[in-house]
Every structure is written in structure tokens, then in C-alpha cells.
Amino acid sequence: TCDYSKGRMMHDETCPHCHGLGFIGYDVEPGDPRFGKAFLCPVIYATTWDEEMGIARHEAARLNWHNFNKTTDQAKLIQKTIAELLREGHGMAYLHGQPGLGKTLHAKSACIIAHYKYNRVARYTSQSKMMDWLRTSFDDEYGQSTYARRLKELAEIDFLVMDEVGRLNPTDFATATLSEIVDRRYTNADTKTTIWLSNMPPEQVMDDYQVDRIKDSRFVVAHIDGLSYRQTDVRIEEDELWWQKL
What we know:
Elements: E1 23-24, E2 39-40, H1 42-47, H2 65-68, H3 73-88, E3 91-96, H4 103-116, E4 122-126, H5 127-135, H6 143-156, E5 159-163, H7 172-187, E6 193-198, H8 202-205, H9 208-214, E7 220-223
């Protein structure tokens, strides 16, 4: 069958899903989004690192979610907030506080869980990287349509984490684009998950229109405070393959 020895998968014709082809199809009616498409075999999917997540493969070892609850009180608060979003499968949270409290570690770990446990498209990015990606749309011959397509892609990601919100200089382009993304993610919040991470509260980095959506009573805005990991004796056990066991 399929051998997971040392994390290396031996995939052959005995696989019950794809019989060694590597891809599967679904017997569905026309109109179903899966109709006429090939999908990666579930066995390969579960053991192949998704480079598109925005998280490097070598980072995974120290992102084991199950080790974080052994750490600090603020880490437990972060984990509780994000765990609820994972369970619900939709919603929004804005977490802010000084660097070193575990916001990014938890959010990256949650991306991995959303992808490998819940089979959701998960992406981690920073505000600056996202803005650069959108700004380069206009290097294309069809800049405006490319920009619109990329905004649509961001709106449709199942589980999106945007880090370092507010570190970017507030140019007109950055302000208008962030407002557009907040609005689209807000509109899709009943089916999509968004986590915003920042060192500052939303009022300091967003305009009133954006803050109004972020602070919707359905969502969570949490101030994380306490000691930095670097000031504690916390040691997170590493496990390179924890995500394959979800």
C-alpha cells in the first residue's frame, strides 16, 4: 500500500484511491466545481508540502500546535482564539501586541492545520508582501485586470493570515488596497477565515471604515500582552512530521 517510512511516501498501484496514477476524479454532475477536474491523490496530498502556503518546509518542525499549550498564558489565549476559528471554519480575528508573544507561530501552525486536517486552501503572508504582489500587477500588459484577478484570489482563500499589518507606509495605494481586501474578506466571513496580526490595535493602522468591519460583534479583537518567548525558558519540542499525523 502506502509506506510513510521517515516521511517518504512510496506510492504505487496498490493505492486504494488512485491506483498509482497520483490523481483522482469525482463522479459528479455538471455544474459541480469538481466536475471534469483532476485532483491530487489524498495520500500524496497528506504528505506533500504545499509551497504555496507561504511557510517554508524547514519551519514546520517548530510549528507543532500541540506543543504551544505547554508555553505561556498569552500563548494559550492566542491558541484558544485561533482554535475556535479552525473549528468553526469561518470568521475573523485581529490579534495585536508586542513582538515575540507567539502570534505568528500560532497563525502559521493554524495554516498548516487548516490545510492538512481540514483540506482548506491556507495562505500566510505579510501586508508588505501582499502589497508588492498586487502592485506588480501593473507590470503586466493587462495591469488592471491582473490586479482585479489577484484581489479576487485573495478574497476566495479559505484560510488567510495577514501578518505585520500596519508596518507598511500608509501610501494611497496601500490604504485603498487594504480597505478593499478587508471589505472582501468581511463579505466572505461566513465561509472564509481571516486572521490579522499586528503590533498595534486596529484604530492605529486602519481607517474608520476598516475598523468598523474588523470590530463586528461576530469577530474577535484581542490584545495579547506578556513576556516575549525570548524572555522565558520556554522550549518548543520540534517534530518534522507532526502535520502528517493530523
